[in-house]
Design brief:
The complex is a heterodimer of chains A (448) and B (554).
Chain A lengths: L9 H7 L8 H8 L9 E7 L5 H4 L2 E2 L4 E2 L14 E8 L10 H9 L7 E6 L7 E2 L7 H9 L8 E5 L12 E3 L2 E2 L6 H9 L6 H26 L4 H19 L28 H17 L5 E6 L17 H5 L6 H26 L2 E2 L2 E2 L4 E6 L13 E7 L9 E9 H11 L23
Chain B lengths: L3 H9 L6 H7 L26 E2 L2 E2 L2 H12 L29 H18 L3 H4 L10 H17 L5 H17 L2 H13 L2 H4 E2 L12 E3 L2 H12 L6 H8 L6 H12 L4 H12 L4 H4 L14 H19 L5 H6 L2 E4 L1 H7 L10 E4 L12 H6 L1 E2 L2 E2 L1 H12 L24 H5 L1 H4 L1 H15 L13 E2 L2 E2 L3 E4 L6 E4 L1 H9 L2 H16 L8 H13 L4 H7 L4 H4 E4 L4
Parallel strand pairs in B: 1-13
Antiparallel strand pairs in B: 2-3, 4-13, 5-6, 7-8, 9-10, 11-12
The chains are: A alpha/beta (448), B mainly alpha (554).
Protein name (chain B): Cellulose-binding domain protein
InterPro entries (chain B): DUF1585, DUF1587, DUF1588, DUF1592, DUF1595
Pfam families (chain B): PSCyt3, PSD2, PSD3, PSD4, PSD5
């Protein structure tokens, strides 16, 4: 996608986004080249499934003097903005219901047990079933703190996630409330940008209409609530919350101008065709970066496929699914290399994201400086489904909250502690995250 | 006459011994423990007993059909909506369908666009009404009532009429009359009464939490079960006249509805999900392994299965499960016949083609099923066995146990698929589960990873012997044809098909309380000679259909 800018007059740019954009500190800061600290912090989850090959992933060297190995090599240009974390366990993911894939993905951002339930089968036991994730995920938690004033609290994007079950969801609004990602770049564009450049009069009119209609709709939900049983009431309550969120954000500005420009999408490829995966990924990343640059949201996730989807990395010369490869014997050199190739390819995509973020100037720095990216996965090693010694990478500047450019070796610290540290880095003051039983507090050693 | 008195009377005509079916009912969930004696089941089916039913939200398929019937809009606006979460292999399971902000935005924008379209021609929408005129409010009141009844699928109450009329007034005051009408439509299309099937039932509960559904609610249950859309005028009229109360009334209506063209796509949608055909669009095939494969085959494979299923269910005189699973014919066009290597019609249209009964039998031997239950570069006895076990025998095969290092047998020149998978039997850890799947899958070894017939695999003659174990459908078979004929006449398969329709048709898993509903369905299906349309009618006759226990415990 070429992020070519539409030709809009400055007046239209400033008013078009909602008529109230002028005078925003954020926008003012843009035009006055303020220091990076003026800018809001952003958080991105970059999720890939099925772990990695440890010895091809782990850096060589010491904390400050290290070399990136084969898988992470594409991130070398950003080495000073990386924290490579070894030895962190997803301890919680060994507890509660669910099979390893379900636990791995469902605990990755929640740090708590999946729900008991009768929705999904697991393990070699037909009587055992599992529900959804059992708690709020860190992205949604951060969105509730950082995303109150933006058009979207958070943005969930997928690349051929396709499956729609507990093994395919990373993001949760709360227990049992999965947030499915959007797989189709066209829908992403429509959601983010289709209305941003309307002329001020029709935008004002649309807002007024929406406010009145949503008010009516919320009335319907309220009136109905009292007549329903507990389960149905809870379901409609969540729906009502979603409608209220829209209503509350009707006046959220979004900013056109500065580095924000409506991207053109061209003719995006079919979202379900296997070989379109790379192109779909680029389109989603381009739009994600622009959503941040336009301050439409400050929290986002990018989920690459779902763990048991039949993804075949044909463009790397492969003809077996990633899932199948991940189960091959560690002594099978050919397939081991193919898994390494997949990891390296995903690292290239992360490098592309970092590159795009670094290309957006903000004050004296870039959008990358104020962004924290978490690259995580569901299991450490496909063959054993281990959820210990997980391969984590943090990237970006995190607004100066973390001391980047290091390779850190931990000794089985829990990933809940990492989630706490991420919240703290985003200036959200918590001392525990997920199930406290697996949390000892903020992961030490990351901060400045 | 509403409520319990009528219920007693209705049920008098259909009493049946439940024990014969009860024993087999448990078969569908026996997993690895089928040798155990079935649990004793209460055979008395006199007491009313619907299982808990959570409130149902429209699927994308239902939304598209509904706005087509409500507003004449055939643009399928829900295609771009957030896909439904899937449970039990279906995307319409009430327990799994939530709403996020993203979906609520999509509902809002779709409602705005639909409303904008609808008010382009106000004369058609509200004939004889001058919405800008002095007396507009009375005819707008008529529009709110009329359109509201169709959108909410029941008459609006006075409070609702007043609220929506006020909404119109606001829009007209602030802008103009068409805006006022558009806002009314927008509001209705985002209301829970449109997006959900709100079922409050008759005023007097027949027991705690259990209500008989109102006639309007039955109209919607019928229309969404049989058409995946809103009721038509005949249904609304019957509801208004109070003629959807007795099983007889409902049966007559269901039979009429199955003759309507709207029933066909609705029934096909079930089969697409039951047979896991969405993977036709998602799977990948390795062109190196399969030179005969090309992307253009996917829609043809789907079209074949759809044409075949539609014919069997609606046009074949037997219209039964046996035909679905064993018919020695299919529906092909020129390209697809060439793909199968059989003589066929010319051109793009699909017509009935007789096939070699030694090579093809019903849907299980369609390329759509065989190719999706396979890997990019090989067949897959595991997937095919699992598919038969889960979708036809209703026996859930769970994923491998935690922390088990799994080695998937990879393609090796000169080694047949069957030989490669033999290690599943040798490994004690794997054997327990894989003996449930692989031996069933072996019977499909005459079909390669794209569903083409083969006599040789890696230079060796195909051995397609296999067996079904630890079910109520046990047996040994040489090839999928034998297997298909066996399954088609098997009681566990027949009951499984009933269970699958129950889950899809009612949008939920069967519960203990549904036992008697299941028994009556099994019995009626048997009495009809396992006719699919008869089963659909029967789905409208159960306690689970006519009554509701408030469900969805949080």
């Amino acid at each position: 996608m070429s992020a070519s800018r539409r030709l809009l007059s400055r007046r239209a740019l400033l008013r078009g986004a909602g008529g109230v954009a002028l005078g925003l500190p954020f926008l003012d800061a843009m035009s006055r080249s303020a220091s990076a600290t003026t800018f809001p912090k952003r958080f991105i989850v970059f999720f890939t499934g099925l772990g990695t090959v440890k010895d091809a992933w782990v850096p060589q060297g010491t904390e400050l003097d290290f070399t990136l190995s084969e898988v992470l090599a594409p991130l070398a240009p950003f080495k000073e903005k990386l924290l490579v974390l070894e030895g962190i366990d997803m301890e919680s993911a060994y507890h509660g219901p669910g099979d390893p894939h379900q636990q791995g993905i469902g605990h990755a951002l929640t740090g708590t047990e999946l729900q008991e339930g009768d929705l999904f089968p697991y393990a070699c036991n037909p009587n055992a079933k599992v529900g959804w994730g059992g708690g709020i995920s860190v992205d949604q938690f951060l969105a509730s703190h950082l995303g109150a004033s933006t058009k979207l609290g958070s943005l969930e994007l997928g690349i051929q996630v396709q499956n729609a079950n507990v093994s395919s969801r990373i993001s949760y609004l709360g227990p049992g409330q999965p947030v499915p990602p959007e797989d189709d770049p066209r829908n992403t564009w429509n959601r983010l940008f289709s209305e941003i450049a309307s002329d001020p009069d029709s935008a004002a009119r649309r807002r007024a209409h929406r406010r009145r209609v949503l008010d009516q709709v919320m009335g319907d939900y309220h009136n109905l609530q009292g007549k329903l049983g507990a389960g149905d009431r809870e379901k409609l309550e969540h729906h009502l919350e979603a409608v209220s969120e829209i209503e509350r954000r009707l006046d959220a500005p979004g900013t056109i101008g500065g580095s924000c420009a409506i991207p053109t999408l061209g003719d995006p490829p079919e979202p379900f065709v296997n070989d379109n995966y790379p192109e779909l990924g680029r389109l989603q990343i381009d739009q994600l970066v622009m959503a941040l640059a336009c301050d439409l949201t400050r929290v986002a996730s990018l989920q690459w496929a779902s763990t048991q989807a039949g993804k075949v990395f044909t463009w790397l010369g492969q003809n077996e699914t990633h899932h199948q490869l991940s189960h091959s014997s560690p002594t099978d050199e050919t397939r081991r290399q193919q898994i390494v190739d997949i990891g390296r390819w995903h690292a290239e995509q992360l490098a592309y994201l970092l590159d795009k973020l670094a290309a957006v100037p903000e004050g004296t720095g870039t959008l990358l400086d104020s962004t924290l990216i978490l690259w995580c996965t569901d299991i450490a090693v496909g063959q054993t489904h281990a959820r210990r010694d997980m391969p984590y990478v943090l990237a970006g500047g995190a607004g100066g909250a973390l001391e980047m450019g290091r390779y850190l070796r931990y000794q089985g610290n829990s990933h809940n502690d990492l989630l706490v540290a991420l919240c703290n880095a985003m200036d959200v003051d918590v001392t525990t995250f997920g199930n406290p039983a697996y949390c000892t507090g903020k992961l030490p050693g990351l901060g400045v | 006459m509403e409520g319990s008195q009528r219920r007693a009377q209705d049920r008098g005509g259909r009493r049946f011994p439940a024990t014969a079916f009860a024993a087999l009912l448990v078969a569908g969930v026996c997993g690895g423990a089928c040798e155990d004696a079935p649990a004793p089941v209460d055979s008395a089916c006199g007491a009313l007993s619907p299982g808990g039913a959570p409130i149902r939200r429209m699927t994308r398929f239902e939304y598209n059909n509904t706005v087509r019937d409500l507003l004449g809009d055939d643009t399928q606006p829900a295609r771009a909506f957030v896909p439904e979460e899937e449970v039990l292999g279906y995307n319409n399971q009430a327990a799994a369908l939530g709403v996020t902000q993203s979906l609520a935005e999509q509902y809002m924008k779709a409602a705005e666009r639909l409303a904008e379209q609808a008010v382009v021609d106000l004369d058609t929408l509200m004939p004889g009404c001058d919405a800008e005129g002095e007396d507009a409010l009375s005819c707008v009141d008529g529009f709110v009532r009329g359109f509201g009844r169709r959108a909410f699928r029941r008459p609006l109450d006075a409070g609702e009429v007043a609220r929506f009329t006020e909404l119109f007034g606001w829009g007209r005051e602030a802008y103009d009359a068409p805006t006022g009408i558009a806002l009314v439509i927008q509001g209705m299309l985002q209301s829970p009464h449109f997006l959900y099937r709100v079922e409050l039932g008759m005023p007097d509960p027949v027991e705690k939490d259990v209500v008989q559904l109102s006639h309007y609610e039955i109209a919607s249950r019928l229309s969404y079960l049989l058409w995946s859309s809103m009721p038509d005028e005949a249904l609304f009229d019957a509801a208004e006249a109070g003629q959807l109360g007795t099983p007889g009334e409902i049966r007559a209506m269901a039979e009429r509805m199955l003759e309507d063209p709207r029933a066909r796509p609705a029934v096909l949608e079930f089969h697409r999900q039951w047979l896991e055909l969405k993977h036709v669009d998602l799977m990948t095939k390795d062109p190196g392994t399969y030179p005969a494969y090309e992307e253009g085959l996917r829609p043809l494979w789907l079209a074949e299965t759809e044409a075949f299923v539609e014919h069997v269910v609606f046009d074949d005189p037997a219209g039964d499960l046996t035909t679905l699973l064993t018919a020695p014919y299919s529906f092909l066009n020129e390209d697809l016949a060439a793909f199968y290597g059989v003589p066929g019609p010319e051109g793009e249209a699909f017509t009935r083609v007789d096939l070699d009964p030694a090579q093809r039998a019903g849907v299980l031997t369609h390329a759509s099923v065989l190719a999706t239950q396979a890997k990019p570069n090989q067949s897959s006895p595991i997937h095919r066995g699992k598919f038969v076990r889960e979708r036809l025998l209703c026996d859930l095969v769970p994923p491998p146990p935690a922390n088990l290092p799994i080695v998937v047998p990879e393609v090796q020149p000169g080694v047949s698929t069957r030989e490669r998978f033999a290690q599943h039997r040798e490994s004690l850890t794997c054997a327990g589960c894989h003996e449930l799947m692989d031996p069933i899958g072996y019977t499909f070894e005459h079909y390669d990873g794209i569903g083409q017939w083969r006599d040789m695999d890696q230079g060796q003659p195909v051995d397609a012997t296999g067996e079904v174990k630890r079910t109520h459908a046990n047996g040994s078979f040489d090839g999928a044809i034998e297997l298909a004929h066996h399954l088609a006449e098997n009681e566990q398969v027949r009951q499984c098909v009933v269970s699958q329709w129950f889950r899809y048709g009612y949008g939920r898993a069967e519960k203990e309380e549904d036992h008697c509903s299941m028994v009556s369905l099994q019995q009626a299906f048997a009495e009809s000679g396992y006719n699919i349309k008869a089963l659909l009618v029967e789905l409208t006759q159960t306690d689970a259909f006519r009554y509701r226990r408030q469900g969805g415990t949080p």
